[in-house]
Model the fold of this input.
Amino acid sequence: QVQLVESGGGLVQAGGSLRLSCAASGRPFSTSAMGWFRQAPGKERDFVATITPSVSTYYAGSVKGRFTISRDNGKNTVYLQMNSLKPEDTAVYYCAAALGGGLTTIRAAYEYWGQGTQVTVSS
Done:
C-alpha cells in the first residue's frame, strides 16, 4: 500500500509560480515512477509530468518549459515547480505512483493516487 499526500496548491495571479509537493509513504519510494496529473471542472484527468527512478522526465506539451518535476528519494517526496502560470492551468492537481517504475503518461499505469490539491490561477 502506498499513501500520497499533496500540498502547496493555492491561488496565484497569472505569471506567478507555485511549487507542489507530494509526500509518499508505505513502500520504497525510490523504485516507483511518480507522476502529476490535473483535472479541471468538467474535464478528464490529464497527464502533466512524470519522473522515473532514474530521473528521466517527460512533460505534457502544454506545460513543457514552464513546469519542472523533481524528486528527493531521501525525503520520499516528488515536486512540481510551476512557473509562468496561466488561467488555463487552473485545476485540481493529483500526484500518482506507478510501481513498475517505467516512464509512462498513461493514467491507468499509476496504481496509487493522492487526494489532490487545488491550483487556481487568476487573470
The mean pLDDT is 96. The longest strand covers residues 18-25. The chain is about 0% helix and 50% strand.
